[in-house]
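Cross-check.
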Amino acid sequence: MSLVKVCKQQLQMMRDSGWDSLIDQVFSFCEKKDINIPNMDDIFKPPGRSRRKVQETTNLHHFRVELFYSVIDMQLRELNDRFNEVNTELIICMVCLSPIDLFSSFDKKRLIQLAEYYQDDFSTAELMALDIQLETYIIDMPLILLVATTTVEKGFFCYEHCQESTTQSNRRSMDE
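Predicted model, tokenized:
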């Protein structure tokens, strides 16, 4: 979620103070590639359209307001719609269930908060019980993961040993 927040901040900074830098880069690129640069104070002429019904604007206004600001505003609106405060909070609460790094992001308070969002599914008594169950889970989970990891490792060791034995057995049979 921090990446979404950073993205929103970067877009807002670009909108607030990024135009001059962008236009300088565009002009520099156009000069290097020998591309004609329109005068920004001239009237914008939309290609392929009748100019009778079009409101006259300068090239600067067209490129800055109608393109640059419009695209950034559209991106910000999309991020805000998809990651509004409620959705962001739900995602943060759900991240607490991630098993990565032995459940390092596990947060009992956030999980209880997640359960509270679903009032139809959890009664007051169940929420109180959930608090105790999560505490037990925090204590038991490292032990369970340790045992499970050891068991899986032993299983792979046995599998590899059987594979080696079978391969050696097949080689002996072929040699005879």
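The chain has a mean pLDDT of 85. DSSP finds seven helices and no strands in the chain. Passed to J.P. for a second look.
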